[in-house]
Amino acid sequence: MKFLLVFDFDHTIIDENSDTWIVRCAPERTLPNGLRNSYQPGHWTEYMGRVFVYLGDNGVKEDEMKRTMTTIPFTVGMIDLLGFIGENKELFDCIIVSDSNTVFIDWILKAADFHKVFDEVFTNPAAFSNTGYLTVQHFHAHHCAKCPKNLCKRKVLKEFLDKQLERGVSYTQIVYIGDGGNDLCPVMFLKKNDIAMPRQGYTLEKKISELAQSLSPVQCSVLVWSSAIDIMSYLKLLIKE
């Protein structure tokens, strides 16, 4: 029997937000106020599209972006954790569900040689246009009122599990590792035997504890982590059982 590990990316695998890190490529490492203030809640992907246009207009090329993105630090202990998962792939299927984009995640994982650890990456499709500008699109359309317009992580997880079932693969337990508000929707989909691992001090942990206080707790178990070593310790216990 296999375990499914579901990872968020920003502030989970890496210790930063990949979308805000790219601003280091901008002139004077900052964005104009008008652009910064143009973000509307739930429409982050559109906002990032405008950021990429601004970078392109200022002559920021693909190789400079790539150099900058591959300097993002991994979260404490994450390199050890991903190494451990890579050594035990017969026990773990491992996916990323992220509101970042395919280009950033691909660059970062390949630079650190971790791309083989993950079976699939679900994130907003991005590509460089003929004119050398980075463009990003919505991952999918959905009808979930709780999630940003471009991505409902619960829908992604549910569709992945359905597809795996069709292939005859079911999981002993799902372990969901994340930090953000948009990780709550998939966590609420998890069953009693599953486990949510919110990062300590981040939005997901706060939202899960608010639910518990309002007497509508999540069904799954909850284990908070501050270093990826905490996650690795839990996984080692799992495979001993």
UniProtKB/TrEMBL annotation:
Coiled coil: none annotated. One of its GO terms (molecular function) is metal ion binding. Transmembrane segments: none annotated. InterPro entries: HAD-like_sf, HAD_hydro_PyrdxlP_Pase-like, HAD_sf, Pase_PHOSPHO-typ. Substrate binds at D19, D99. Its cofactor is Mg(2+). Mg(2+) binds at D8, D10, D179. The active site is at D8 (nucleophile), D10 (proton donor). The keyword Lipid biosynthesis does not apply. The keyword Hydrolase applies. Keywords: Hydrolase, Magnesium, Metal-binding. Gene3D superfamilies: HAD superfamily/HAD-like (3.40.50.1000). Belongs to the HAD-like hydrolase superfamily. PHOSPHO family. NCBIfam families: DKMTPPase-SF, HAD-SF-IB. This is PHOP2 phosphatase. It comes from Machaerirhynchus nigripectus.
